[in-house]
């Protein structure tokens, strides 16, 4: 098991990132699943999705030294059985990320930076989002915006939020890591969040808690 990051943060968050190197059977051997969880696993028809699903459970076990069960509500927002922690999960390519907090809501997004982000810029960038025109940094800047908006979407329970209309990221200069601010503005809230971001090879990670 290749743990890339396993860090307890000052705000009570616990952040874990893991590179998937094991096959299906190896992952399955690392945890004990309930009958209900096994049935959920068997519903997936594609092996990569099964491996991704297992990787999340194994990473959670490594982070907590416990075998905790993850369930999902009607909005596909994950929660831990017994509500011992707030949890947010992300996966991209061969990395899986989890953030936990016992008292605060959390949101995380992890994305591999492909060349395709510019083709969907119009779907999530609004007139108040400021994107650099420097070609060398634009892709990275766009991915930070995308991940930040995903993290906000998750921390707000995935309810009544359109990425372009209801989420705005305050102007910032893209660095290797930093803290930015994002605003959620819809019918039920107008709220500002601090978001932490960093690059990890060709990946971008953004997380928040509140």
Structure description:
The protein has two domains: 2-104, Ribosomal Protein L22, Chain A (Alpha-Beta Complex); 109-209, Ribosomal Protein L22, Chain A, CATH 3.90.470. It is 30% helix and 33% strand. The protein is built from six helices and eleven strands. The chain has a five-stranded antiparallel sheet with strand order 7-11-10-9-8. Strands 1-2-6-5 form a four-stranded antiparallel sheet, with helices on one face. The radius of gyration is 17 Å and the shape is globular.
Number of strands: 11
Structure class? alpha+beta
- Kindly provide the radius of gyration, computed on alpha-carbon positions and rounded to a whole number of angstroms: 17 Å
Q: Based on the structure, what is the oligomeric state of the protein chains?
A: single chain
Low-confidence stretches: none
Record keyword descriptors for this entry.
210 residues, alpha+beta, Ribosomal Protein L22, Chain A, 2 domains, 5-stranded antiparallel beta sheet, 4-stranded antiparallel beta sheet, 30% helix, globular
Describe what is shown at a glance.
By secondary structure, the chain is an alpha+beta fold. It has helices at 24-29, 35-43, 47-64, 121-124, 135-155, 163-166, and strands at residues 2-8, 14-19, 70-72, 78-80, 86-92, 95-101, 106-112, 167-169, 177-185, 190-200, 203-209.
């Amino acid at each position: 098991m290749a743990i890339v990051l396993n860090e307890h943060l000052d705000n009570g968050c616990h952040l874990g990132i893991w590179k998937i190197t094991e096959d299906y059977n190896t992952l399955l051997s690392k945890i004990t699943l309930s009958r209900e969880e096994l049935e959920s696993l068997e519903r997936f028809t594609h092996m990569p999705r099964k491996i991704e699903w297992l990787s999340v459970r194994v990473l959670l076990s490594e982070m907590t030294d416990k075998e905790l069960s993850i369930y999902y509500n009607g909005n596909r927002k994950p929660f831990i059985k017994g509500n011992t922690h707030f949890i947010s999960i992300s996966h991209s390519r061969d990395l899986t990320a989890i953030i936990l907090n016992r008292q605060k809501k959390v949101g995380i997004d992890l994305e591999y930076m492909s060349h395709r982000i510019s083709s969907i810029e119009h779907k999530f960038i609004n007139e108040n989002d400021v994107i650099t025109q420097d070609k060398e940094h634009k892709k990275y800047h766009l991915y930070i915006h995308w991940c930040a908006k995903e993290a906000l979407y998750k921390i707000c329970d995935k309810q009544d939020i359109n990425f372009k209309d209801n989420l705005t990221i305050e102007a910032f200069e893209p660095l290797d890591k930093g803290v930015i601010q994002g605003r959620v503005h819809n019918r039920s809230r107008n709220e500002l969040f601090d978001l932490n971001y960093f690059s990890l090879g060709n990946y971008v990670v953004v997380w928040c808690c509140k």
